Amino acid sequence: MRNTSFASMHCSLAQSLEIIGDWWTPLVLRDLYLGLDRFDQLVTDLGISRNLLTDRLGTLMDGGLVARTPYQENPVRYAYELTEAGREFVPILLALTAWGDRHATPPAGQPIRFTHDTCGKVTTATVCCSECGEPLEATDVTPSPGPGGRTAPGTALIATVLAGAEHRPR
């Protein structure tokens, strides 16, 4: 359950977390990606309460990551699917899963493997530079102010730090 809203923060990360920033949401998105598209399937797979799932799906639909279409008329029942924005989130889920496989693997081992359809090989997601394709590491990236940067909640000190001399995160 969320304790804080980030809606007023002037930060793209905070705005993203407003939509996906609770423990259940990435798991709901993962299950939709893996093909579980019915409400009852999601409840059963995740062990989530129906009220909580209703809330999470509503937030994801409002945020544009999930759409629903009726598959039954009486009573009306819906199938859920990832939208384009939801599909764009899948690489983030893959990267989080890869991090978990390296640093928080369940005792029995890696629960899911992903095969890259283009080359046919089992793959581990990495975050790469959009320009040169090299993997990004924390020590290889230098942040700088963007066109929307300003001193505001969520970036109260960051804007000042980034406006100063070149800064490299630790």
From TrEMBL:
**Record-linked SUPFAM superfamilies:** Winged helix' DNA-binding domain
At the top level, the lineage of the source is Bacteria
Q: Which InterPro entries match?
A: HTH_HxlR, WH-like_DNA-bd_sf, WH_DNA-bd_sf
- Keyword line: DNA-binding, Transcription, Transcription regulation
List, for all copies, the residue spans of the domain called HTH hxlR-type: 11-108
A GO molecular function annotation here is: DNA binding
One Pfam family hit: HxlR
Protein name as catalogued: HxlR family transcriptional regulator
